[in-house]
Specification:
Elements: H1 2-19, E1 59-74, E2 78-80, E3 83-84, E4 91-92, E5 104-108, E6 113-120, E7 124-131, E8 147-155, E9 161-169, E10 195-205, E11 208-215, E12 236-246, E13 249-263, H2 288-296, E14 301-316, E15 319-329, E16 343-346, H3 347-353, H4 361-368, E17 373-376, E18 379-390, E19 395-406, H5 434-437, E20 440-455, E21 458-471, E22 484-488, E23 493-496, E24 509-522
Antiparallel strand pairs: 1-5, 1-6, 1-24, 2-3, 2-4, 6-7, 7-8, 8-9, 9-10, 10-11, 11-12, 12-13, 13-14, 14-15, 15-18, 16-17, 18-19, 19-20, 20-21, 21-24, 22-23
Length: 525
């Protein structure tokens, strides 16, 4: 709980600073982490406030939003957070079905935004923002509903101090790449920050802004219902520091951590019909192994989850660049990276998938029959770099590149050999089933974009993306072990097997080219 102690100490320091009323610099607009003109990027994390006459203490409404529609085309299948569509692509899908190699296209107005800012005087503000993205659907239907992006309020008792409560952009990894794809934000290729329910504080001290927050462990970039968040062992605890030496540069660093409860056998719904707790009856023939299994079934399984990040925003005239690099373990559980959820398997499955999986006889069969659960924690490094240049007031262009890589791929769950035929029936296969596609071990995304603004509130854009994604296969069917059907080391007998034609199996590397052409009408008041 060192992280929690650090948070409490930091919170007390902020309150002491508030009571002593430390005076900061004169108010100036030196926050470089501003919202992009197309409203696709986060709000300012902290705004300097000055004391204003009490006559301004009235409710004010400010409308924000845009109508955005784009035509999207991909030459091969891509996945939007695990779903086979073009709504918010993050990776290239492994081509395990005949139609995965065929091109597809669609028209998507669902990433349009609608929001409002409600302020009371100069110290209090509430923000509501929603879009209409549903990545479970490949097209817009009548049943499409608004999706909450932000819902929080902030209170600024002084020009140095701000409290914020609600759902807003993650305090962790707060630099966002520039992209017109509002729903994806290059999430699987470098950018791991998203939205989170949080309670936190910002404090300004000269050129520095310090922050800390606690939040939920769920993430919200996919449509799956997150269950048991309330039963997690602890919230996320995050700290962050921004340094703004000039009006042209921002440097930021942050860290986040929590302990994830990944199993609770006592309340697991898969145990319906069985005792809620492990059988406590006395067995006359108990073995040490059965006692150990019984003890394990009475305890929750927890995993450490943490991350650290470094980022920057640099603006100079018509040029702007931003980038970030992050490292951590079990990041998917606390952010939107989508590449490294904790791996759940059994010791028997792990042995069968290893290079020794061909062992048979007493030794091999007993090893493969071990049903004890095993949890592994992938470690991931990820980063992105993006830049924009405004040639004129109406025309601009930019580029973006991002990569995510698992640094311990040996622990990943691989795709089963028998699932990699391109002649599989045409039924959707999601990345949530690593036995079919294999866990993602690396993902690369890069592209170019251009925009033309004929009017102040109108923008037309073109963006290209190339996704290159690497999937994990089991080691049982690689190298020399692929040619061995089975081998009993006791009797020293076995048989060979035909490993099959590799050209008939799905490649572990998938690549897809994508282009988006569209326009948006921004109507901020």
């Amino acid at each position: 709980m060192k992280f929690a102690s650090s948070f409490l100490v930091f919170f007390l320091v902020i309150l002491l600073g508030f009571q002593s009323k430390i005076q900061g610099e004169p108010n100036e607009n030196n926050d470089t982490n501003i919202k992009d003109g197309s409203t696709l990027y986060p709000q300012k994390p902290f705004e300097n406030q000055t004391t204003t006459p009490s006559s301004t203490n009235e409710i004010r409404f400010h409308l924000t939003g845009m109508l955005k529609t784009d035509f999207a085309y991909a030459n091969h299948s891509v996945l939007s957070f695990g779903f086979d569509n073009l709504v918010g692509p993050t990776v290239a899908k492994r081509q395990v079905q005949a139609r995965d190699t065929e091109p597809r296209f669609g028209i998507y107005p669902t990433s349009s935004l609608l929001g409002t800012e409600i302020s009371y005087g100069s110290k209090t503000k509430a923000i509501f923002e929603a879009d209409f993205v549903d990545v479970t659907k490949s097209s817009v239907g009548a049943e499409t509903k608004p999706r909450v992006r932000q819902m929080y309020f902030q209170y600024n008792p002084t020009s140095q101090l701000q409290f914020f409560l609600g759902r807003t952009w993650d305090l962790f990894a707060g630099v966002f790449p520039q992209s017109y794809n509002a729903s994806a934000f290059m999430s699987a290729s470098g950018n791991i920050g998203w939205q989170r329910e949080q309670i936190g504080i910002w404090y300004k001290l000269g050129e520095f802004k310090l922050a800390s927050a606690i939040g939920t462990t769920g993430f919200h970039n996919d449509p799956n219902v997150k269950t048991n968040i309330e039963r997690n062992t602890m919230p996320t605890i995050c700290i962050r520091m921004d340094w703004i030496p000039t009006t042209h540069f921002l440097f930021t660093t942050s860290a986040i951590g929590t302990k994830l409860k990944v199993s609770d056998p006592n309340t697991d719904s898969s145990r319906d019909g069985l005792a809620l707790r492990a059988d406590q009856s006395i067995e006359t023939n108990q073995s040490p192994q059965s006692i150990l299994n019984q003890m394990n079934s009475n305890h929750r399984a927890t995993l450490n989850s943490y991350g650290v990040s470094l980022g920057f925003v640099w603006k100079q005239g018509k040029f702007e660049s931003r980038g970030e690099i992050s490292y951590g373990t079990n990041l998917t559980s606390i952010t939107s990276s989508g590449i490294s959820p904790f791996q759940t398997t059994t010791y028997g499955e792990e042995f069968a998938s290893s290079q020794f999986g061909f062992f048979s006889g007493t030794y091999g069969n007993e090893a493969k029959s071990n049903l004890t659960k095993k949890f592994e924690s992938p470690k991931e490094i990820t980063g992105f770099l993006s830049s924009n240049y405004d040639v004129t007031k109406q025309f601009g262009f930019g580029f973006h590149i991002g990569i995510s890589k698992i640094t311990n791929p040996d622990i990943l769950v691989g795709a089963d050999f028998n699932s990699l035929s391109i002649s599989r029936p045409d039924q959707f296969q999601w990345t949530s089933n690593p036995r079919t596609l294999g866990s993602i071990r690396e993902n690369l995304n890069y592209g170019l974009r251009m925009n033309y603004d004929p009017e102040e509130y109108i923008r037309f854009f073109l963006q290209t993306d190339i996704f290159r994604t690497y999937y994990k296969d089991v080691d049982r069917y690689t190298g020399l072990s692929a040619h061995i059907g089975n081998y009993d080391p006791i009797s020293q007998t076995g048989e060979w097997r035909d490993p099959g034609n590799k050209s008939q199996r799905s490649s572990a590397v998938s690549e897809s080219f994508m282009i988006r052409i569209g326009g948006l009408f921004r109507f901020d008041t």
